[in-house]
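Example 9 (inverse folding). The structure is encoded as follows.
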């Protein structure tokens, strides 16, 4: 048996096409959805992510107000830039690319963004809405995973889901979402403190790896016929590559695909969906201005 490889790039393309149609409808009403992405410094991975986001904005017909700032910018100056974007009625979404330089407090920056423009879904007000099951911004990567499961007809009703990783960005929100009645999964949230991790992962109908540890999930840790979603992206030194590195996920892809029924690759799996759902959240933010 060999797993079906979930083509996140293809599914993301479909999602973006649907978003582009809705963007056109908004434009007819005089609203051009606009996202401001702030990049501090020139970390290669962050630059790559921002480039991907800007490309997606062009693809769906949204306005791009990206801002590039030097690594040594002061925290107060960054907060001033955010306040300008908060006050700009033509900007619907604000995203500050993480991680930030060590001299800047990430929590303070996240909380400075207006909740109604927080398209990452990281503001405490939006995380509170998520916890309570209220309508609001869903963090992009968890949302992208839910869409992948739905598009591939992977059943969550009654499924035993194991999530490896408890970050505020992926693991925690995903555990809350999959526990909702609309998904009805039974969720186990594992982490670095979990003893005998494989005892949990081998029981998973759906296994989601988001620990940030390359090839943590091996073939012997995966239940036959399960669906494996790999969120991890790590840069591994590789002299055979022109770039000098290769990308690796949290899953030993080549071996795990022999026992799983579905598996996402790295790259080309969850990553494109994260960007697609960022476009979705920006559209959602723009649509909300019609209700004000």
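The amino acid assigned to each position is listed next.
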């Amino acid at each position: 048996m060999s797993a079906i490889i979930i083509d996140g790039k293809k599914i993301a393309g479909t999602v973006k096409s649907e978003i582009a149609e809705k963007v056109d409808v908004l434009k007819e009403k005089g609203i051009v959805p606009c996202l401001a992405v702030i990049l501090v410094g020139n970390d290669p991975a962050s630059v790559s992510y921002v480039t991907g986001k800007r490309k997606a904005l062009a693809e769906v017909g949204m306005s791009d107000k990206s801002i590039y700032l030097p690594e040594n910018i002061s925290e107060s100056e960054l907060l001033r830039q955010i306040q300008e974007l908060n006050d700009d009625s033509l900007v619907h979404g604000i995203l500050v690319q993480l991680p930030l330089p060590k001299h800047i407090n990430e929590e303070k920056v996240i909380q400075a963004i207006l909740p109604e423009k927080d398209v990452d879904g990281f503001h405490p007000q939006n995380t509170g809405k998520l916890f309570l099951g209220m309508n609001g911004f869903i963090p992009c990567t968890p949302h992208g995973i839910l869409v992948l499961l739905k598009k591939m007809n992977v059943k969550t009703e009654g499924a035993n889901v194991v999530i490896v990783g408890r970050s505020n960005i992926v693991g925690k929100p995903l555990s809350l979402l999959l526990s909702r009645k609309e998904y009805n999964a039974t969720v186990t949230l594992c982490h670095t403190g979990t003893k005998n991790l494989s005892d949990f992962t081998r029981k998973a109908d759906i296994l989601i790896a988001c620990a940030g540890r390359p090839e943590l999930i091996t073939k012997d840790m995966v239940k036959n016929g399960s669906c494996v979603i790999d969120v991890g992206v790590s840069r591994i030194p590789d002299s055979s590559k022109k770039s000098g590195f290769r990308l690796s996920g949290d899953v030993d892809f080549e071996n795990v695909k022999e026992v799983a029924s579905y598996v996402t690759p790295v790259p080309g799996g969850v990553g494109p969906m994260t960007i697609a759902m960022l476009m979705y959240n920006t559209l959602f933010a723009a649509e909300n201005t019609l209700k004000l």
